[in-house]
């Protein structure tokens, strides 16, 4: 029921009913990440609007899609190679028809090898149906088999209708006709960012509070992050920012990654301020203990759950200004 300009620009403010989340960006990011997980599981169908928001806000989404989807979105031609990623058996059968001359088959014995007599194909429900309008009246021959294969590729792409719906959703947020000016790979980077979390990139955008590059705590942190698997790095990003992807272009990061030392009991759990892309570290007695505490935090705190505590604390101590973060 929203108008396009209501979701265009910097997105929207999130208020979670029954929770104390105070949205300064982190709750928005966390909610978008939850939406991406729902998209992957097929729960919601508002991908187009989210894709547009990702491009506008320069905050990427973790929605791994087949390359052919991005090609369809920008209008690039698709081939058997693209189809094979989602339907390998059908792609192999089409290759067999296309390259049948390599096996010595000619026009004379074509139908002895290929039982299809017209422009029909097997649907996703295993039914033999026309692959183009009037396909049953178009005979399949040795000479027009390449045309048949080209049409069959598009016939076998049921997501064409879904892609059209995604483009319609994107049109709410961004000028969709301009998609023809970018490549499929570029659009994927604009929407999804980098599939792997680069520690080197994080080191280039870090800012320290009560610490510096030579601090033992800092050296331990980078060693631990380097030892993490990419799955653990994704959890770490979710913990400190509410997001699970980094933009492909470093200039698109709206905030620098902050690492801050806090005056708390040694060897406690780290905390984070997702709104400010900030990690808060207490002192640690060893790198091993720090790694164990950090792993525990990122695996067991995947959602924002300390906001009621923070709201009560801010009320008792006076509102904390952004300059303090």
From TrEMBL:
Taxon lineage: Eukaryota, Metazoa, Ecdysozoa, Arthropoda, Hexapoda
UniProt pathway annotation: Protein modification; protein ubiquitination
Organism: Diploptera punctata (Pacific beetle cockroach)
GO CC annotation: cytoplasm
UniProt catalytic activity: S-ubiquitinyl-[E2 ubiquitin-conjugating enzyme]-L-cysteine + [acceptor protein]-L-lysine = [E2 ubiquitin-conjugating enzyme]-L-cysteine + N(6)-ubiquitinyl-[acceptor protein]-L-lysine
Domain HECT: from-to ranges: 48-312
Pfam families, A to Z: HECT
Domain of life: Eukaryota
UniProt keywords, alphabetically: Cytoplasm, Phosphoprotein, Repeat, Transferase, Ubl conjugation pathway
Protein name: HECT-type E3 ubiquitin transferase
